[in-house]
């Protein structure tokens, strides 16, 4: 087999595997841990003591994955268009 062809097939296969894994992650676990508060739901105040709810996740500690956002948008668009 030609080395260039082998490298092309390997690159396409790796991209397909990574994409499949991300799609499965979006399907099985649509929510991921919030990266700002690391799932703790609150952040320490900058001035003084105490904490406040994380604004990025609204105090849930979770965020919706980007792929699930896209899926929800496409699903909503399809439902609105076919009603
Ligand atoms: Zn958060």
Outline the structure in words:
With 83 residues, this protein is α+β, with helices and mostly antiparallel strands. It has one domain. It contains two helices and four strands. It has helices spanning 3-28, 66-82; strands spanning 31-33, 42-44, 51-53, 62-64. A two-stranded antiparallel ribbon has the order 1-4. A two-stranded antiparallel ribbon has the order 2-3. A hairpin with a 6-residue loop joins strand 2 (42-44) and strand 3 (51-53). Zinc ion is lined by residues 34, 36-37, 54, 56-57, 61.
Q: What structural class is derived from the secondary structure elements?
A: alpha+beta
Shape: flat
The residue ranges in which pLDDT falls below 50 over 5 or more consecutive positions are: none
Domains, number: 1
Percent of residues in helices: 40-55%
> How many distinct helices?
2
**Averaged pLDDT, please?**
93
Order of helices and strands: HEEEEH
Largest beta sheet: strand ordering: 1-4
Distance between the termini: 52 Å
Topology summary:
Layout: H1 3-28, E1 31-33, E2 42-44, E3 51-53, E4 62-64, H2 66-82
Antiparallel strand pairs: 1-4, 2-3
The structure holds zinc ion.
Zinc ion binds at residues 34, 36-37, 54, 56-57, 61.
């Amino acid at each position: 087999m030609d080395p260039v062809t082998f490298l092309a097939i390997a690159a396409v296969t790796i991209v397909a595997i990574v994409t499949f894994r991300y799609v499965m992650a979006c399907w099985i676990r649509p929510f991921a841990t919030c990266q700002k508060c690391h799932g703790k739901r609150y952040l320490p105040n900058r001035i003084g003591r105490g904490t406040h709810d994380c604004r990025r996740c609204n105090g849930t500690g979770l965020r919706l994955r980007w792929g699930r956002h896209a899926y929800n948008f496409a699903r909503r668009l399809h439902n609105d268009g076919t009603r």
